[in-house]
Amino acid sequence: MADDFIEVYENAIDAVTCQALVRRFEASGKAVRGATGGGVDTQLKDSWDICIDDYPDWQDALNVLNTAMLRCLMAYLRKYPYTALAPLSLRMPDGAGCLRMLGADDLRAMPDTLLQQLAVKVFRPGTINIQKYLADQGGYPYWHCELYPKVGDPGGETLHRTVLWTVYLNDGFAEGETEFFHQQRKVAPRTGSLLIAPASYTHTHRGNRPKGGDKYIATSWVLFQRAEVLFGAPAPNPPAAR
């Protein structure tokens, strides 16, 4: 079977931690109606969300989730090295002090410490939402992707997204899958598993309605570092001659 670029990493976060995040969500009183890029529209997305980046007291949860994401992203890069190599011509010093172009085999064979440094150099984490979908009501039925131009986003942050990721914080309900349109694939929630897939239209997807129980997820994106960070700010133009 051909690769579909959808990867699921089981037990990325342990069940005890997942349960603690669900309890914390319920006790926080901070959940608001989930929004899409165009705002709140429950016909498109019916959820209750907390953007945990907005709250300093959730910093420990951010660290746990982003650590799990980075670990799985490294595995994803080993399988799909062109996630980093196709957009960027990456080079590293060789033994002679010259810069050598990296290829797919280089990334696959790279030690974990070096690959992690490369991943942090090239990518950055997005804001994390913890979301609740009510049983027999909630869902994200609109077929959508994660890469789009957004009003009020002059820096094009939504256009910097390269992959999406989701951690399923619970299971024990029917349906509620993440369904991918073109790949004709449904990913069933399993507590602690982490899903990674490309952010673009090729991986148009939706979140199916959970039946018989509420569904909780933590979800975000991996973004490219901004060009100014990757390549340095451009030199200012010299004054025009008179």
TrEMBL record:
Key words of the record: Iron, Metal-binding, Oxidoreductase
- What InterPro entries has UniProt attached to this entry? Oxoglu/Fe-dep_dioxygenase_dom, Pro_4_hyd_alph_FE2OG_OXY
Record bears the keyword Oxidoreductase: yes
Q: Name one Pfam family in it.
A: 2OG-FeII_Oxy_3
Domain named Fe2OG dioxygenase is located at: 121-224
Taxonomically, which superkingdom? Answer: Bacteria
GO terms assigned for molecular function: metal ion binding; oxidoreductase activity
Similarity comment: Belongs to the iron/ascorbate-dependent oxidoreductase family.
The membrane-spanning stretches of this chain are: none
Name this protein carries in UniProt:
2OG-Fe(II) oxygenase
